[in-house]
Amino acid sequence: MTCELHAPGGIITVTAGSHVARFVGIICWLGYMPRSADGHLLVHALDAGKNFLPLANPPDLPTDTHRVVVIDPGHGGENTGARSVADNHVEKEFTLDWALRLRPLLTGDGWKVVLTRTNDVDVSLADRVALADAAHADLFVSLHFNSGARQDQAGLETYCLTPTGMPSTLTRDYEDDITRVFPNNAFDGRNLQYAVRLHRALLEETGGVDRGVRRARFMVVLRGQNRPAVLMEGGYLSNPLEAQSIAAEEYRQKLAEAVAKALRFSNPVEDRTVTNAANQTP
Ligand SMILES: [Zn+2]
Known about the structure:
By secondary structure, this protein is of the alpha/beta class. It folds into two domains: about 1-60 and about 270-280, 2-Layer Sandwich (Copper Amine Oxidase, Chain A, domain 1); about 70-260, Aminopeptidase (3-Layer(aba) Sandwich). It contains seven helices and twelve strands. It has helices at about 45-55, 90-110, 125-135, 190-205, 220-225, 240-245, 250-260, and strands at about 1-5, 10-15, 20-25, 25-30, 35, 40, 65-75, 110-115, 140-145, 155-160, 210-215, 230-235. Strands 8-7-9-12-10-11 form a six-stranded mixed sheet, sandwiched between helices. A hairpin with a 2-residue loop joins β5 and β6. Bound molecules: zinc ion.
């Protein structure tokens, strides 16, 4: 059973027995699997409140001209991140390049931009959060690339913190205690609204495979944030084809354009469904 919810923010599609919901065509992972009973589609109250409600409502985006965004190039220094199977370069180089390409685009659009690092240094996760506090940032965006055990794993993922009470999409080896309340949980609704906007622009600009807007609780760089915060994964360095794309400057420029486009409120992302042949329900 599949149901469509038509809301001012866009159309949400939900299917019984699937954690995957679609919002204006992009994948959003739910905390709990909807089920059908007596001709009704039942969704968990937390998914209704923490996922459907923020999606259904037009996003609450900043309108003033003094907006501060912290862009966080993942890893750095001895913390290299994942290694590319294409050219042997490492994640920390690509995340910094993405951020440096992005900075002038955002500045041109009226954002005050603060980078957590501008060269090859290892900044602790706590320091990255503290830097956003010191900058009085309105938004925090962390940039990463992915790596998987299987080489065929590919696509784009965007993360925000899991709302309290809800299981995470990704846990890694972290004990996913659903009762935990983190500072960033005060921004559950706006986290998702930004994540969806960013993820959608990423798919539109790159034409990449949609692995969805996902939830995680182990990401220290997100959960301590006193502002909306999103972490983006711009492709798999372990996938030969994507690693080749990431190695190309044009692709990294597209990643930067995507983030800038998502954060350009005077010229909002067009309200249309992403038509992507590569879209698959995982
Ligand atoms: Zn990373």
